[in-house]
Amino acid sequence: MDINSLLSPQDSPAQETPPPHPAQNSPSRPSSSKRAIRQIPSRTPSGLSKQITSSPHLSYQQQLPSPGVTYTNGTRAIHSATSTPPERAIHSPRDARMTPPHPYTRQASTPGMDTLADLAAMQHQHQQQAARQSSVAQRPSFSLQNMPRSISGGSVTTDISMGDASPQTRNFAARALAPEHVEYLTQLDKSLHENPLDYYSHVNFVTTLHQGLQYHISAIDPGNPQSYELLSVLREAAANMAKMYPPGETLWLYRLEDEKALAANVEDRMAVLEMYKMATQDEPSSAKIWVAYGKYLGHLLACSWEQHPPEQWSEEDRAVGRELFTPVLLQDIWRQGAESVKYNLQDSSVVWDHYIQFLQDDMDRSASSQEKQDKAVRITNIYRERLGQPHATWGETLSKYASFISHIGGNAEEAMEQAIQQNTHIKQQYTHREEFEFNLLKATQAGDRDTEHYALTRYLKWEKKTMGVYSFPLVNALFERATLRFPVDSTLWEDHVEFLIWQKDPSVDLLEVLERATRHCPWSGSLWSHRILTLEAEQRDFNEIEGIKHTATSTGLLEQADLEELIKVQIAWCGYLRRRAFDVTATEDDADIAEVGIRSALELVREVGMKKYGRDWPGDSKYRLERIHIKFWLQRGNPDEARQVWNALVKKHKDSYDFWYRYYIWEMVLWANHAMRDNSNRGQQLQAPTRATTVLEFGMAQLHTIDQPEPLIDMYVMHCEQHETVLKVRSAQIERRRAERVVVIRRQKEEAAAAAAAATRPEQPQSHAADGSGKRKRGEDADTDVAAKKTKPLEAGEAQSTPTEVRHASEAPSDTGSLTQKRDREHTSVIVQRLPQSVTQIKIRQFFSDAGTVRNVTMKPEKDSMVAIVEFESPEEADYALTKEAKGFEGHDITIKRGQSTTLYVANYPAHADEAYIRKLFEPFGEILSTRFPSLKYNTHRRFCYVQFADADAAIAATKLDGTDVEGLKIIAKISNPNAKKKRDGATAEGREVYVWRLNFKIKKREIQEAFGQFGKIDRVNIPTLPNGNNKGFGYVVYERKEDADAAVNGMNGKDFWGMELKVEIAQDRAETTKPKVKSTIENAVSPAEREETPGKQDTTTGTKGDRSIALLNVPDTVNDVRVKALVEPFGYKKITLMPQHGGAVIEFESVEQAGKAEIALQGVDFEGRKLRIGRYKDLIAQKGEWKAGTAFVQPARVNRPAAARGYARGGLRGRGKSGLGFGRPTVPHNTGEANSVEAKSNDDFRAMLLGNKGASEENAK
């Protein structure tokens, strides 16, 4: 066995760097062990580099000075680089995935294993001592510009130097470069000779040379790119960088652009295609690379096959090209690209459009009609599949689909109608995300990296929070987009990995994602740890896992970023070795390997820690690797070795109560085997836990310095009382008194020292923000303080868009009620008319983006134009938007006017009224742009809506209906004013409602009417009842006059009524206690009159409650129970329970047959613009309420009533929504277990019952 193979490269006692593999010198396989790993620095560019925004992380990181000097760009035009940094090696992007930097040939274990291990350790210690004598005490701080060559003093960059040890200045003169650029390259070259690991110098060096080549091709010598004087330097620079830093999307495109221009023959062009293949493997979610790949292959295809090719080739090259570059190959490239990015909502169409166009052109070239027909069927299916995926250009895809159907002789209108009906939910999916996509697009186009990162993280947070059953591909694609744009943000990669682990979706290869993550962020110990653990979970080979561990630790940059990152990797590695050593199939060699590997990890961490923090470094404060070592020895049956590890930790952790506690518990666990009497120790004295007692006594000796002495004293005394002899217990009592005195004296000294330090501390000047105690002062900052209390802090890793901005709401849309200021659409909206019919919401948002934040856009088609209602966040932004009228919209004259006084607040209309009813009622007064119903999720009693007219005159005219009678109700129709308070009205507000409680449960509504009718004319009586016909002990009586209600209180309060002392009072609303109703119920079992006439009538329902109940799913949360009642009434319902928070309702029927008929009839029915789905109660509860993009109704204030005496509460009529009735019923437990526990029946069961096979149905119910 090779002992050195278990040690990290830095720890090998044979040599500082293990011998390289023979294949390592191959130019196509650069050593991944030599690649430096990026941290997250930033630098201030100068000169030409000012055009290069290649920081691999967010700009709010502290910037570092440029290694070069300041230069200007001169007079020549130089293309600017984008902000995506290089991410992977150019020649071999897959090298670092599964191949360790230094493969080892493992020999068989021998009996001299321990001797070899000791010898290796001794030799290593000797070399360490020799190295320390000549090492430099201080090391420079870590950055990508000033990076030490090796943690152990050796060089990890031997094979990446730019030249000789003492290089001479090279000449970078070229016709394409101005003198300033030549001097800038000279400075970068010098910087790279001094520090070959300087990431930014590599980026600027390669980018400047690339820009020079492009300028040479475009302006100096267009026909001969090979004449570029620095071509060899460019290729050398790219190769040197590839050994350490892999290119990302942008530098891949740069390199491919250069190689395409330089390709002179078929072999060169095939090499370019191979590079494209590597680029797509490296960045599979990059739509730009896939499009460039397909276009280049299409160009090669045209040059090989067309009579008039875009580029002149020799006949020999054309002949070879016709063999190599085929339409089948191009089709496969477009198919792969479309599949890879299909869930990218914003950019997937860029690839898919090329793919579908290629297929349609190929169909048109078909030789036979049958072949053409087959291809048409395939293309049709591809269109339908695409329409079933949300994307930004869904409408354009639908138009192309209709054109294609028309092209092949089909019915385009029917196809479009069918596609729209089948994919309504797909359009809604994108609508919910449209605002996030727009914010992201705006930040990307503006080049604002901070805003783009904030928009992405906010988008991801919302996606995870609202994730549904079918959302996984969209969330995963969004993570891919995020890591493509910010490839060195390790937090994004960790979030992505954790998301995939949580979801366990087999469609995504977790290991492939982890490979890319560790290549892009190789300093992240968390990512390497996840990769090792995932390999172990998938039962990969030991050599493969060992290679990944060596790849992680070989460069030395884990500890440069943070020693904690190195420890994370070693924990994963040592944990794997320990678990492998004691697997059921393990051998003795596996245990020996684990022992040496754990020792090696401990030595490495100790050595790195001492070099990083000095010889007095106390070690890992949590001693995690040591605990793995202890567990290893214990599992191997050698507790004495484990105890030696504990004792070795005492010196550095003796002042930690946590350490003594863990050590004590460990000893007690070992002693537990001897704590019980059995046949083996019968007649003998049980062993006392003397070793555990000794541990606590050692801890007690540290009372002067230990961090928590009090709990240690208590633990020691308790231990002695539980487990030791009487002599030890007595000694512990004495020791306790002594220890407590020691602790008291210590605390007194600490308090005195703190007081003395406070007395000598200079007085801190007070500021307006805070006083010395940290409390904010009143006065000027009172408003700021109030705002701060309402502000939810930003989560870690997220940036505020404006430093002084006070955020009053969650970053992600929420279904909970808002406590913010009321939404004022009337003063913050404008109406835009005469827009072209092709306009989209995105275009409207972009048009008004400079006016302010567009909160919502509602569009309405007209005869030959579109009308849009655009809502802003403030009235000032709406005022500014009016000035955009003069500019016009895409060459069209438009009209913009304020939305003020155009919206009508309508209430007290019939409960069954829907949008069509409201429109019919108000259409005579003018053109209606929209109607808005409130969500009932927070209060099912809401019965109002908003009707917006095209102009204010029509809205004012419509107020004529205010107070008019509509089906027996006085309708309310007023100009909407969010700041106006509603005037209280109704029986409760007028004092005409009487609340009665302590009723005899047998009393009926008729007796109540007779008893209270003597005081005046009664408007209505409400006595809530139970299913058995008994009342709930309270009720309401509403009189027509307030005087009659007062007389009823005076005459009936305290009176004996059916053996009970009646309590009567005037009903009052108390808004601070009563909760809004989140569900409503309509019962239709037996009318009150029938129940009074036949009190003994038995229930005629059949089957269990679960069998005869169905759940309506996908019901809009604006639909009330009365409209649901109208839907199910033909089937004979018994009870309707509306639950808007879950987007549906539970319908209970009289019989199982009725439920079966209703299920079959209602499945897939169009209801209020939705297709109903039928399920069971558990399906409804599992369903989340809908979220509407751009709308956020405020949760209503709670209306509360006084609590009744003796546990009774106020109650009222169900589902009527009138003041004073229906709030605050007494709490009665509802038994929903039956509905949840009964197994759901299939449609076949219901059909069998409908055919008369009731016996089988009853058997199933049992």
Topology:
Elements: E1 42-43, E2 63-64, H1 95-98, H2 113-134, H3 179-194, H4 199-220, H5 231-242, H6 249-262, H7 266-282, H8 287-305, H9 315-324, H10 327-340, H11 348-364, H12 369-387, H13 394-407, H14 412-422, H15 424-446, H16 449-465, H17 472-485, H18 490-503, H19 510-520, H20 525-537, H21 542-553, H22 557-561, H23 563-581, H24 588-613, H25 624-635, H26 639-653, H27 657-671, H28 690-700, H29 709-723, H30 726-760, H31 782-790, H32 825-828, E3 829-835, H33 841-847, E4 854-861, E5 866-872, H34 875-881, E6 895-898, E7 903-907, H35 915-922, E8 928-932, E9 944-949, H36 952-958, E10 965-966, E11 969-970, E12 972-975, E13 993-997, H37 1005-1012, E14 1018-1022, E15 1034-1039, H38 1042-1052, E16 1056-1057, E17 1060-1061, E18 1063-1066, E19 1080-1083, H39 1088-1093, E20 1109-1113, H40 1121-1128, E21 1133-1139, E22 1144-1149, H41 1152-1162, E23 1166-1167, E24 1170-1171, E25 1173-1175, H42 1177-1182, H43 1233-1237, H44 1243-1250, H45 1254-1261
Parallel strand pairs: 1-2
Antiparallel strand pairs: 3-5, 3-6, 4-5, 7-9, 7-12, 8-9, 10-11, 13-15, 13-18, 14-15, 16-17, 19-21, 20-22, 20-25, 21-22, 23-24
Helix pairs in contact: 3-4, 4-5, 4-6, 6-7, 6-8, 7-8, 8-9, 8-10, 8-11, 10-11, 11-12, 12-13, 13-14, 15-16, 16-17, 17-18, 18-19, 19-20, 20-21, 20-23, 21-23, 23-24, 23-25, 24-25, 25-26, 27-28, 28-29, 29-30, 41-44, 44-45
Subcellular location: Nucleus
Main location: nucleus
Biased composition (Basic and acidic residues): 88-97, 778-795
